[in-house]
Design brief:
The complex is a heterotrimer of chains A (200), B (352) and C (101). Chain B contains 13 helices and two strands. By secondary structure, chain B is mainly α. The chains are: A mainly alpha (200), B mainly alpha (352), C mainly alpha (101). Chains in contact: A-B, A-C. At the A-C interface, α1, α2, α3, α4 and α5 of A face α1, α2 and α3 of C.
Chain lengths: 200, 352, 101
């Protein structure tokens, strides 16, 4: 199946190009909405990687959770707040730039070494029956989550409950505007008006 | 003669299936617009388009030609790249879900024994996926960006309002849409749409999930209408307040793409409802004559499409705060209640 | 030649570095938040790659839990960002240096 392998490699390269290109674009863009769109590109290419790796469930959840929920919220907030473009400020810690380059070089060397050694190592389990593997299908993930990983799963649900409560308490704090008006006879009327995200 | 397990042959068959499904649905949507106009006209005591062709049957063609040849205007201050990208996201996310729907049961290719040596049987769906239902949810959830980005990039106040509204509305109703499906998943124990449809074949082809999940069906129907931005949830494009909402600034083919995407979304949402709740291709005598399956399926989809048009002719539009209250304070609790009920009953009465 | 494990690890390292660089360079709270999401995602890619290459489910289950944490983080983080914007009229993190709203 040399053609299938070649095709897989080709898809990998395209997806990697999309991921790295979108990631770099996200950092370089100054407009937050462009950055958000680039990040969606990264997420979708990662979903493609998960499909290549034989994890369709994780791929679908990746798109639903990241692209469909989190980034929609981010885009919604960017549109709602009408965030303007970032202003480039002068760097305060200029003297650290050589140190940063030095550290980055060391980290890069380390990473290259580790990746090289992993690539050469024979530890990889040869999954002979990769096509019929049950790993990554819905049933295996469900079984794993509700047997071995039940406690982490429940803790996650508590975490999400806490996040819901936290988000509601943060968002419910209404902004109070004090409107001061003067009457024709000089009497001051103070009106408290609360701003809510209602009636968009 | 031929090896039917040849991957190239399978890929070719799948491409053929995708081609057929896309074209069938695109033609269907073209004529759906005509049907909608005619049916609305009947409901409102008018005639509707009846001049092009017999009974106006060539009207979609005329509309298409008009869309293609109109001048394509983009606003001066629009963010060009996103402005062009948005309609494509809309149409792609609408069409991509088509490949997982089961259009019919497992059928045998006629005359296959003489050609291939052995009878060739295949399910009438393009791709049987393990995560088909999640795939549908994932692809449709990307469709929100089309509307939100179209609204933002047009650089018009009406469009921005429409985009913001639709983002809020679709986030809110996607929750209850997803939760309403969990009851069906709990009952059938799989995410594969074909298996879900197959399991509803009992009771002379009438063991449909709607009889076990009336609450889930109700929640799904309402949130599906909200997801496709149809009346009475068409706030993103409310023409009386927002001109045309998110596609105010779009013209010619870009507008047509949004238009087609909306109708394809209607169709796919109806297909999902038919598959999950009304038994998909199941019906009387399907076990004996599998070729009846696609007809039942199409009939069920048409029923939902007619329901959409009927609602459009009947109901007024929600207000924004009513919409939010309804989604969060009524639909979501009902969907959760449905899950709790189904799970409780499943624990006690289902042995799997 | 099919994609190797080392390819995935290298890609994941690159994406993580991009995320770190974004957090350091960006001054906008929303952009920094997005860079953190990118870092979480690159770690997820490593988990799934290991899970697939070693034929072991645990990596994918961990990714599931990381996603739940990311969702919780998004809810609270965006709530904080909106509250910040209401009080400061700006999303610059340099303006939010009082440790209170």
């Amino acid at each position: 199946m040399i053609i299938a392998d070649l095709f897989q490699t080709l898809i990998w390269i395209v997806l990697a190009g999309l991921a790295i290109g979108s990631g770099v674009a996200m950092v370089v863009q100054r407009n937050p909405l462009y950055a958000a769109i680039s990040l969606i590109g990264v997420f979708i290419s990662f979903a493609g990687f998960y499909l290549l790796l034989g994890a369709p469930f994780i791929a679908a959840v990746q798109v639903i959770v990241y692209a469909g929920a989190i980034m929609v919220l981010v885009v919604f907030v960017i549109m709602l707040l009408n965030v303007e473009e970032e202003v480039r400020k002068p760097l305060r810690l200029k003297f650290l730039i050589p140190a940063a380059i030095f550290g980055a070089a060391i980290l890069f060397a380390q990473a290259a070494f580790i990746i090289y050694s992993v690539g050469a190592s024979p530890v990889r389990v040869p999954n002979a029956d990769a096509a019929n593997s049950q790993i990554g299908l819905t049933k295996s993930i469900g079984t794993g989550l509700f047997t071995d990983y039940l406690l982490p799963f429940e803790i996650t649900s508590i975490l999400i409950l806490m996040a819901i409560v936290g988000a509601i308490t943060l968002a419910r704090r209404p902004t109070v505007l004090l409107l001061v008006e003067e009457d024709y006879d000089g009497k001051k009327h103070v009106e408290r008006r609360t701003l809510k995200i209602d009636n968009i | 003669m031929f090896d039917t397990n040849n991957p190239l042959l399978i890929a070719g068959a799948q491409f053929l299936g995708i081609f057929l499904a896309f074209n069938a649905v695109l033609v269907l949507t073209a004529y759906l617009s005509l049907v909608e106009r005619r049916v609305l006209a009947v409901m409102q005591g008018r005639l509707g388009p009846n001049r092009v062709g017999w009974f106006g049957l060539l009207q979609p063609l005329a509309d298409g030609i008009k869309f293609i040849f109109k001048e394509d205007i983009a606003p001066d201050k629009a963010t060009k790249f996103i402005y062009i990208l948005a309609p494509f996201i809309a149409i792609i996310s609408a069409l991509m879900t088509l490949i997982v729907y089961p259009f019919g049961p497992v059928v045998t290719l006629p005359f296959s024994e003489t050609f291939f040596g052995a009878p060739v049987t295949f399910p009438m769906t393009v791709a049987r996926m393990d995560v088909a239902l999640l795939y549908v949810l994932a692809v449709t959830s990307v469709g929100v960006y089309a509307i939100a980005l179209a609204g933002w990039s047009s650089n018009s106040k009406y469009s921005l309002m429409g985009g913001l509204r639709s983002a809020a509305q679709m986030i809110s109703y996607e929750l209850s849409l997803g939760l309403s499906l969990i009851g069906v998943i709990l009952m059938s124990g799989t995410l594969d749409l074909f298996s879900i449809a197959e399991q509803q074949g009992g009771w002379f082809g009438m063991k449909w999930n709607i009889f076990f999940q009336p609450l889930g069906f109700f929640v799904y129907l309402i949130s599906a209408i909200a997801e496709t931005n149809r009346v009475p949830f068409d706030l993103p494009e409310a023409e009386t307040e927002l001109v045309a909402g998110f596609h105010t600034e779009y013209s010619a083919m870009k507008f047509a793409l949004f238009f087609i995407a909306e109708y394809v979304n209607m169709t796919t949402v109806s297909m999902l409802a038919a598959t999950l709740f009304l038994g998909g291709f199941q019906g009387p005598f399907v076990a004996e004559f599998p070729i009846l399956g696609p007809f039942y399926f199409v009939a069920k989809v048409f029923f939902f499409l007619f329901l959409y048009i009927w609602l459009r002719g009947t109901l007024p539009r929600f207000r924004f705060d009513q919409l939010m209250n309804f989604g969060w304070k009524f639909l979501l609790p009902v969907a959760l209640l449905n899950i709790i009920l189904t799970a409780t009953i499943a624990v006690f009465f289902y042995s799997r | 030649m099919t994609p190797q494990l080392s390819w995935y690890l290298a890609l994941s390292a690159v994406m993580f570095t991009i995320g770190v660089a974004g957090v350091i360079l960006k001054r906008n709270a929303i952009s920094m938040f997005m860079c953190i999401e990118l870092m979480l995602n690159s770690v997820n890619l490593t988990f799934v790659a290991f899970s697939s290459f070693f034929n072991n489910l645990n990596g994918q289950l961990f990714v599931f839990i990381v996603m739940a944490v990311a969702a919780a983080e998004a809810a609270v983080g965006l709530g904080i960002i909106i509250a910040l914007f209401r009080n400061r009229e700006s999303l610059d993190v340099d303006d939010a240096n009082l440790l209170k709203l």
